[in-house]
Amino acid sequence: MTQFNIRGSRRLADVRYEIRGRLAHRALELERMGYEIIALNIGNPGLYGYRTPETMRLAMIENLGAAEPYCHQKGIFPAREAVVMQQQNRGILDVTAEEVFIGNGVSELIDLALRALLNEGDEVLLPSPDYPLWTAATVLNDGRPVHYPCRPEAGWIPDPDEIESLVTDNTRAIVVINPNNPTGAVYPRAVLERIAEIAERRHLVVFSDEIYDQMVYDGAELVPMASLVTDTLCATFSGLSKVYRACGYRVGWVVFSGNRENAESYLEALELLAALRLCSNVPGQWAVQTALGGFQSIGELVAPGGKLYESRRAVIESCEASQFLELTPPAGAMYAFPRVRTDDLPDFDDHQFALDLLEHKHVLVAPGVSFNVPYRDHFRLTTLPDPVVITEALARAEELLHSYRVSEI
Prior knowledge:
The chain is α/β, with parallel strands linked by helices. The chain has helices at about 20-30, 55-60, 75-90, 105-115, 130-140, 160-165, 190-200, 265-275, 280-285, 290-295, 300, 305-320, 350-360, 385-409, and strands spanning about 40, 100-105, 125-130, 145-150, 170-175, 205-210, 235-240, 250-260, 325, 335, 340, 365, 365, 380.
């Protein structure tokens, strides 16, 4: 047989997604060997006992007959109109169903939105740490990611002056992830207002990833970016996967508001790309109107005593009791991003720690370096499991870190 190599695209050389990467593959191997793994690497509510509201399932079932043909490339009208109503309830009044695109999850829409915008060498401002799909999609669509720092000592809140200092003639867009993944930060109104002002003055598109928009704790306020952006284009991303615990439905949306008159060419390009993939998953779209218009059960989950609230508290309390971990308590989303105190661990490396934690303690987390940060002393875990599971997982992390210190002595 002739020997040859079929190589992967060079475009992937700078793309990483460790959340489902080699560590996750190794965890699967260990499970096949009979080990029980505490998997904290992915925010996948259905794996932790969270159910999609029954009314959404019924809405899908009752409309299956209407879900067999392709729909319009932007999505079915009832779903898009429901998104419009939600936006209007939040004070964003200048949108209609024509400005809403439904996609196969927010992930697909991020890729389409960047592909429609970027030419080779165009720059996109991204938070660091970021959800790595944003950086990956920028690279894969010939753009250049430029990361603005969100520092732990500032509570993971970015400095708008630093953001503006990174704007160049090649900058096309700024990405805001709020509530933030992986840190759980919820940005103050004043910071968002400054980012909006910078984007308007420098003619940048604002991409606001608000997939965790109703998942906030202890009185934190989610300020919709679209309510602040008027003189440039604002794209707001959200969907069913997190707040409505329906990841497998693969239903997300992006809403365009603000100054659309100067973005007609871009929006036409996006519709062309949407048409090329025909349409997004139709059955899941029939759940949108029911989800957005019905009882918002997420409120009970994030309130004191609620399952998400108590699991988050378990992470906070475990880190407070730890010799080695420190944490800025997440104000939103379903993740925590602890830092390992490395004063006594000069050789600490977050990726090696994540590998050792998996191999020796059977706990799977995502190393901080996966989220496009320049330091190697953080890791991300989801706060979805029951408090007892989270407490056990972090106790095992503590044991491993203690063993590191003993070996250093």
